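Technical annex, item 7. During the second reporting period the consortium partners agreed on a shared format for inverse folding records so that results from different sites could be compared directly. Each record opens with the tokenized structure and is followed by the designed sequence. A conforming record, contributed by the partner at site C, is shown below for reference.
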């Protein structure tokens, strides 16, 4: 099995990430049921009020969800017998209207501002892999003045096993609220957040790659997931509307995918991330592993003067790994590869602290790199 220096550190951090991603899930739900029962009783005693309002967080879970409640009006009727003309976005020719087929979404949680995190099952047409995907759209997405505008997409990847759940879909980490608060403060674009499973099982790490003989997770991440977003949401044709964010192993996959496909994706926020592939499944496939190595991908991009890509590393001051990021920046942060490193003071290797780093500056950083929606004049 191929081993790399950072793999040992990753193993030490893995238990902490899995604790965030999976272990708390069952106890949390149990405590939540008990908590809800107590809130119901209190709400009855208070005649509603604050406690009843809290229950709204969980109302509607499991119900069907439809995003884009204010679609653009249909095109005006043409002469009889003339071909139908579909509605077109106004202004920006880069806007891509939903192409379909439309997915079936079920609510998994509700945020304080009424926005919904929902889940669907995606059968990847190009990878052949089928897995769960969670989505969230900001409230601006349903605002009529943005009905013909595209929105930037942030593909959020978890660390740990990344299967069967994506922990960024848990409202407790605050990713979606951080974006909403940033929109209000003028420091973040209103991103659509797409949260796919990272791996096809909980046994191995697949490095977000097409490892020979294994599920094609590279194709899933770089093609099927974006195609799914384009099918269901108003997005952008160009890479200017597409970015990744991730933690630990998810940070590696996001960075690798941006470097591998700079024509499709422009930026990544990589938190506490790994630098090189280290799945044991690469054994006997050195050439294919090299083709998924960010070091080699960055060098190729520099040598060919490829499209500019933007990498924002985040690292907590209480975790290890900054030396790897610094070395990568020194060696490959040149030419078209733009690299910054953000220190999270007193930050540890967990999603809560990485979201704090995003609120402290990384969301503003990626928002300056990508393009945002434009309201209709009116």
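Designed sequence (site C submission):
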């Amino acid at each position: 099995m191929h081993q790399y220096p950072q793999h040992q550190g990753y193993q030490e951090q893995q238990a902490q990430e899995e604790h965030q991603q999976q272990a708390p899930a069952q106890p949390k739900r149990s405590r939540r049921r008990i908590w809800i029962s107590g809130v119901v009783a209190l709400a009855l005693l208070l005649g509603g009020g604050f406690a009843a309002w809290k229950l709204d967080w969980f109302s509607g879970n499991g119900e069907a969800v439809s995003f884009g409640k204010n679609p653009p009006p249909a095109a005006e009727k043409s002469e009889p017998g003339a071909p139908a003309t579909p509605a077109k976005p106004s202004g920006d020719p880069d806007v891509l209207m939903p192409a379909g087929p439309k997915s079936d979404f079920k609510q998994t949680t509700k945020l304080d501002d009424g926005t919904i995190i929902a889940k669907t099952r995606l059968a990847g047409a190009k990878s052949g892999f089928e897995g769960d995907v969670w989505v969230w759209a900001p409230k601006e997405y349903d605002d009529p003045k943005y009905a013909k505008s595209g929105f930037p997409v942030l593909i959020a990847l978890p660390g740990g096993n990344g299967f069967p759940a994506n922990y960024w879909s848990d409202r407790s980490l605050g990713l979606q609220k951080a974006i909403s608060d940033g929109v209000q403060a003028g420091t973040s674009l209103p991103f659509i957040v797409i949260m796919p499973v990272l791996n096809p099982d909980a046994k191995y790490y697949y490095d977000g790659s097409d490892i020979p003989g294994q599920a094609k997770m590279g194709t899933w991440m770089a093609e099927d997931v974006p195609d799914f977003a384009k099918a269901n949401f108003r997005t952008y044709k160009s890479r200017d509307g597409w970015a990744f964010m991730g933690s630990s192993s998810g940070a590696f996959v996001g960075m690798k995918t941006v470097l591998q496909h700079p024509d499709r994706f422009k930026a990544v926020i990589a938190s506490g991330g790994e630098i090189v592939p280290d799945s044991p499944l690469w054994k006997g496939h050195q050439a294919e592993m090299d083709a998924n190595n960010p070091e080699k991908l960055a060098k190729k991009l520099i040598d060919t003067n490829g499209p500019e890509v933007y990498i924002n590393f985040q690292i907590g001051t209480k975790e290890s790994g900054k030396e790897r990021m610094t070395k990568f920046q020194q060696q490959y942060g040149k030419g078209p590869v733009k690299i910054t490193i953000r220190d999270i003071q007193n930050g540890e290797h967990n999603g809560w602290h990485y979201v704090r780093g995003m609120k402290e500056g990384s969301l503003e950083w990626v928002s300056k790199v990508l393009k945002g929606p434009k309201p209709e004049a009116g």
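Confidence is low (pLDDT under 50) at residues 1-53, 71-87. The radius of gyration is 21 Å. All partners now use this format for quarterly exchanges.
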